Amino acid sequence: MSRPELWIGTSFKMTKTRVQAVAYARRLLAEVGAGVPGVTAFVIPPATALAEVSAVLGAGPVLTGVQNAHWEDEGAWTGELSVPQAADAGARIVEIGHSERRAHFGETDATVRRKVRAALRHGLTPLVCCGESAEVLARGGSVDHVLGQVESALGGLPSGPGGLEEVLVAYEPIWAIGEHGREPRPEEVAAVHGALAAEWGDRVRAVLYGGSVTTGNAADLLRVPGVGGLFVGRSAWEIEGYLDLLATGRRHADATG
Ligand code: PGA
């Protein structure tokens, strides 16, 4: 049996103008427009650039996504955008529950759960982010915390197509994310990914790791059992960084395929 595909993607968070995002997408198309063997690449630009980036990448193998979407399809929800609107702009992936949204914008396990169902209702792939704080890590509660978040997000979903089979999970420990984060040790990642793999590994599409991924640690992180891909911020915001990470993914897929 062949190994499942690896997923390697980036969110631009609140960076890049439309011109910058389109230039990035054009370079990506030129370099890997035909796809990366063994790897599914995806880019999640700011919403302002989603339609243009999606148009550049077209119906090709590199997917685009949206960083957040509401659980309702339309209505009086000022400042929000819906899954159908994201799909209309080309998104195939809906990122849900990133810790920055949980910390600053009132995202809760309950809203994450509703958004997962909204994405699935419209045939998009939910990318559900989970991860514990430094305090939870320090008291040894990482596994329980993360399993609780994922159970809350995914519990009760049907298995198979249109259900769990479409879902991506990203383990993103808060203490590892962003410029104040620290690189995780492989054994820290292994502890949580082992538990996620045991509980969800056979049922969801893939479980990714994110948080201080770099071109230097990506190969080691991909070797951690249960890690089915990488979800990357800063290290992929320059196209060379992302291309390097995709090449690392390809080498990993070649070596293990
Ligand atoms: P980082 O962000 O790679 O810049 O640490 C990761 C994330 O928030 O997904």
Automatic annotation (TrEMBL):
Q: What is its EC number?
A: 5.3.1.1
Q: Which GO terms describe its biological process?
A: gluconeogenesis; glyceraldehyde-3-phosphate biosynthetic process; glycerol catabolic process; glycolytic process
InterPro entries linked: Aldolase_TIM (IPR013785), TIM_sf (IPR035990), Triosephosphate_isomerase (IPR000652)
Catalysed reaction equations from the record: D-glyceraldehyde 3-phosphate = dihydroxyacetone phosphate
Task: Name its pathway.
Answer: Carbohydrate biosynthesis; gluconeogenesis; Carbohydrate degradation; glycolysis; D-glyceraldehyde 3-phosphate from glycerone phosphate: step 1/1
Give the subcellular location. Cytoplasm
**Any one Gene Ontology molecular-function term assigned to this protein's record:** triose-phosphate isomerase activity
Is Secreted among the key words of this record? Answer: no
- Give the source's domain of life in one word: Bacteria
Q: Which UniProt keywords apply?
A: Cytoplasm, Gluconeogenesis, Glycolysis, Isomerase
Question: One GO cellular component from the entry?
Answer: cytosol
Known partners and oligomeric status: Homodimer.
Family stated for the protein in its record: Belongs to the triosephosphate isomerase family.
Name the record gives this protein = Triosephosphate isomerase
Species in which this protein is naturally found? Nocardiopsis eucommiae
